[in-house]
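Example 3.2
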Amino acid sequence: MGTVVANNRGKRFTRILFASSALLMIPLFAMQFTNEVDWSIGDFLIMGILLFGTGTLCEIVFRKTRRITYRVLFTFGLLLIFFLIWAELAVGIFGTPFAGT
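Structure, written as tokens:
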């Protein structure tokens, strides 16, 4: 039984990694066709960390919480934080030094 659970966790980790990579392919392909998308290696690295980190934290929430209400609330909170960081890095909604131009 323990091996099956560990194997499923490895599959979930792989899925999170694959989904993060697949989402990063969208701006990579867009850069080939338009000058409107202009990401550097650092942009891909930061967004990859942000996507993978958010996915991993959501997975931890699903593993550690039993009640569906808590799962929904914690996941919603994580996604809200993800979108706020993404918006700040993209357009600077809070005016921090990390804001995009």
